[in-house]
Structures are given as structure tokens and as C-alpha cells.
Amino acid sequence: MRYAQGGGLTEAGRAARERLRQQAVEGFRAGQKNAEVAAALRVSERSVERWRRAWREYGEAGVLSKGSPGRPRLSDAQIVRLERELERGPLAHGWADQRWTLARIKSLIGRLFHVSYTVEGTWRLLKRHGWSWQQPARRAIERDDSAVEVWKKETWPRVREPRRSAGPGSSSKTRPGSR
């Protein structure tokens, strides 16, 4: 089921769906057909078919809600361990440089906890736990900021070209000055 705002059901909404499924089970026990149950509960026949199949295969436990699909897959202890490992740095985990990418963190989560995340899911997980996106500063290690400031103030004004004076101009092809 898709939701317009991109979210799922609230707890109250899930409880209401749970009551619908239980009412459907009562209809199954009473021998009602799928179309009758769907009409009585004002749901689609496809949903009733799925519920009946789950009820036949697994009993009442088959039609119970499985919970929110968006629940976190890592426990609090696992999150703490992940943060410790991230602080150790990529070099400690076999990468050649000191950059954590989402793909690398996704791989690390898979290696440590045997849980698969998408790259987008990895970003959401990190964001939810206070990690932010950062771009490393691209500067040479040998850079001397004070020397750069001196160069900007003393040398640059001497070497840059002066701007053309803003005077009246013409783009006319008939004027001799524009050829």
C-alpha cells in the first residue's frame, strides 16, 4: 500500500488494520466467500485473498501485523559499535585513504553485522544518529596560508590586468570603430 505523504500507518492506523484482519478471519470461519468479506469490510478482494491464504497456511498468526517495515535493523548496541568502528577510520578497515563513503560504510555494516542496507538507507541511518556529510578540504599539505595572504596583497595587484574602462560602446557594423 502506498501513502501520499510517503509515510506509513500510525499506531492507531495499524491497530485498525489489525482489527480488519481479525474480522476477516471471523468471516473465513463463518464460511463467507472472499467477495462477501471484502464488501463487508470495504477492502479489496486481493487483500482478502492474501489474508485467507496466510490464515490457511499459518493460522491466526499468519494474519497478524508484522510491524512497521521502517523499523531500524541495527540495535542500539550495534549502532554504538558502528560509531566506534567509524571513528577508527577507513585505514583500519582496509581502505587506502581516509575517506568514508556511503558505499564503504554500507560494506562495513554488512561485514560487521551481516545486515544489508542500500546506500540511501545507510545515509538515513547515519543522519538519524547525528552523523553529517562532510567534504574534505582540498589543500596541499605544504600550503603556507600566511605566504598566500602576502602574495594576494602585494604581488597580485601588480600582475593582474587592469580592467577596460567602461565607456560608451557600439555594436553597429556600420561604425568604423566596431570593425
What does this structure look like?
- By secondary structure, this protein is an all-alpha fold.
- The protein has seven helices and no strands.
- Helix 2 packs across helix 3.
- The longest helix has 19 residues, at 11-29.
- The radius of gyration is 32 Å and the shape is elongated.
- Mean pLDDT is 83; it is low at 1-6.
Label this structure with key terms.
mainly alpha, single chain, disordered N terminus, 179 residues, 7 helices
Rg of Cα set:
32 Å
Residue share in β-strands: under 5%
How many β-strands, per DSSP?
0
**What are the low-pLDDT stretches, counting only 5+ consecutive residues below 50?**
1-6
Overall, the morphology is elongated
Distance between the termini: 69 Å
Q: Output the structural class.
A: mainly alpha
- Give helix and strand order, one letter per element, not per position: HHHHHHH
- Helical segment tally? 7
Largest sheet: none
- What is the residue-mean pLDDT, rounded to a whole number? 83
Question: Percentage of helical residues?
Answer: 40-55%
